[in-house]
ABC-type dipeptide/oligopeptide/nickel transport system, permease component (Brevibacterium casei S18), 302 residues
Amino acid sequence: MSSSLDDMKSSAIDAAEIPKESQTTYVPFFRRVLAQKQGRIGLALTAFVVLLAFCGPLLLPWATGSTATEFVAKPFSPYGLFGTDNLGRSVLSRFLAGGFTLIIYSVLATALGMVLGAAVGMLAAYVGGRFDAIIMRLNDVLLAIPQLVFALLAITVLGPQGWVLITVIGITHAPRIARVARSATLNVINEDYILAAEMYAMPRTKLLVRELLPNITGPLSVEAGLRLTYSIGAIASLSFLGLGLQPPAADWGLMINENRIALSIQPWGVLLPVIAIALLTIGTNLLADSFARATASTTVEE
């Protein structure tokens, strides 16, 4: 008997003497993201480019001496800090004014794709059966169509307008997001809180929004980061091909197309938007990776 008591005391002492460093505690999602070095770097890069894109138009014309559409000198000649473009407009002015639309369109396209894809994926997983099979096969058909080809076809038919760009990119994102949402929903569909909500006859829409959606935000947040990266690249590519914003509007993708003919003698008209798009893409990619790691663990070691 005394031996058993001694063993219990020894176990209690050992438990009390567990090093503090091995204990874990729950931390909020964004603190887990910022606890990672790549998360901090990604946030810094993304914030820098976004701040530049949003504040740039406000600096014109007093910071550069000209607006984004004003002719100031001969084409590809020295003017100000970065010279002029193919029509003699200030490269710096057009660069400062050209990022706002790209970021807004990318965010809106990603948001549209997230809403459509999440709704379809959650509904397919929850209803199941033949409805799920039909939705997923239609999803596979859409996934088989190359994103850029679909965008080119739609824009050629409907015209290079802002709402067309946003809608097309958002629709092409939706099937991929739907697959992620469906998979995440299947993992939680049989949890007790879902069964309890069904027992109390909660309306299906409310159940999906209030019970299911909050419990799959981790995978969806990771997918949102990836889709935002792809939206930036797709919209910049379409602008480069002349199917995005039309001249004389300032746009980073359009700037690359307009000034590529003089890359050897006046590189800044191409390099500035290329560097900005690259930094934004790298930043959002790093954030997406950090979201994935932060979602995988809800605790950190103290």
